[in-house]
Amino acid sequence: MAQQCMRVVGRVNDCKENGGTLDLSDCQLMQVPDAVFMLMKNTTLHSCTLAGNLITKIPPKLAMSFSLVTELNLSSNRISALPSEMSSCSQLETIDISANSFVQLPPVLIEISSLNKVNASKNFIADVEIEAMVGCTNLEHVNLEQNPLNKNVYEDLAKITSIRILLSPREQEEWEDLSV
Questions:
Q1: Is the pLDDT of residue 9 over 90?
Q2: How many other CB atoms are there within 10 angstroms of residue 77's CB atom?
Q3: What is the pTM of this model?
Q4: Is the pLDDT score of 176 beyond 60?
Q5: Domains of the chain (ranges, CATH numbers)
Q6: CB-based contacts of 93: which residues, under 8 Å, 6+ apart?
Q7: CA atoms within 13 A on the CB side of 80
Q8: Distance set, CA 17 to CA 5, 14, 44 (Å)
Q9: What does the mean pLDDT of the chain come to?
């Protein structure tokens, strides 16, 4: 635990020195430590990586404290939802929520007008609010590879040309083949 704290404090200090890029990846964190918010109080954060941890929940405080972040990497955790406060991240351009436990694209992402790239690969997403996604004017790139998208959603996503959407080849489910 002490070693983990020292690693986090060291990385926060690195962030202060290197212009607002905080990398807390692979720190075995189960949550975002409150100390991070206190230590970063007077530092503008532009990029934040929390990848490769054991985090299940993103605290609303993250969005409120780091509202100017442009890049957020939450990949390879155990997150299944994002707090509604994320909408206050008005500068957020890129978010990586790949390899988590999402069953849908977080609705709050639609509210972030600056967002142009979303990586949501390797989740459990079966359904997507297609109209809402297409309505996001700045959204350019969405990765939905390796998700169990339902057939209609997959087909509708494949037709979208205004956004570059990455999809894995869809495997036909056994129950869908009713010709037997």
A1: no
A2: 23
A3: 0.91
A4: no
A5: 2-176 (3.80.10.10)
A6: 70, 71, 114, 115, 116, 117
A7: 3
A8: 19, 5, 11
A9: 91
